[in-house]
Design brief:
Keywords: Cytochrome c-type biogenesis, Disulfide bond, Redox-active center, Signal, Signal-anchor, Transmembrane
Helix content: 25-40%
Number of helices: 4
Order of helices and strands: HEEEEEEHEHEEEH
Shape: globular
Strand content: 15-25%
Number of strands: 10
GO molecular function: antioxidant activity; oxidoreductase activity
CATH topology: Glutaredoxin
Pfam families: AhpC-TSA (PF00578)
Structural class: alpha+beta
Subcellular location: Cell envelope
Radius of gyration: 20 Å
CATH superfamily: Glutaredoxin
Strand order of the largest sheet: 3-10-9-6-7-8
Number of domains: 1
Oligomer: single chain
Main location: other
């Protein structure tokens, strides 16, 4: 009888340990980031062939600075859309890369737009933009509602940071579900810039 209890206790311990390890796996697709309930991206960068591209939604709303912005105002330009939060360590890590590429491509018909998500106050987002010298506008989306407007499968609204490259016709040409290095950002952007528009 004692031996049976010991075996049951050992099996229960192994089962509980397995559950713990499953929750701590290196997959990185689970929640992280405290109370923000975001999911770190999968690390994938995907380009979409021209024939398979989906239309990006016509996002519109207030910017972090309180101005109005509509994605449709930039039709005819290549748009880099970066989803970020001031509370997100990978967003902080990639911010300077985005600033450099935005400044380098400003005269080439490329418009960078941010979507600030889950910052409960504009002040946090504004402080982030000041600290990193962000030269482009960001829509203010504290509840993540704008992210839900994207076509199914084009963006995981919980994966932050995420980046979409939108072609001159307003279609999603590339996406990254991870923080990007400057080289990765340029590799996703350059082919879309080179397309005839």
């Amino acid at each position: 009888m004692i031996q049976l209890r010991s075996v049951r206790a050992a099996l229960a311990g192994v089962f509980a340990g397995g559950l713990l390890l499953t929750g701590c796996g290196a997959d990185q697709a689970g929640p992280s980031g405290g109370d923000s309930n975001y999911v770190q991206g999968t690390g994938e960068i995907t380009t979409v062939p021209v024939a398979d591209r989906q239309e990006a939604p016509d996002l519109a709303g207030d910017t972090v600075d309180g101005d109005q912005l509509a994605l449709s105002d930039y039709r005819g330009q290549v748009v880099v859309l970066n989803i970020w939060g001031s509370w997100c360590p990978p967003c902080i890590a990639e911010a300077d890369n985005f600033v450099r590429v935005a400044e380098d491509t400003a005269d080439d018909g490329v418009q960078f737009i941010g979507i600030n998500t889950r910052d409960r106050t504009r002040e946090n987002a504004q402080a982030f933009e000041r600290e990193h010298g962000v030269p482009y506008p960001s829509l203010y989306d504290p509840d993540g509602r704008l992210l839900l407007e994207f076509p199914r499968g084009s963006l995981n609204p919980q994966a932050i940071p995420s980046t979409l490259v939108i072609d001159r016709e307003g279609r999603i040409a590339a996406r990254a579900l991870k923080a990007l290095t400057e080289e990765e950002l340029r590799a996703a952007l350059d082919p879309v810039m080179a397309e005839e528009g």
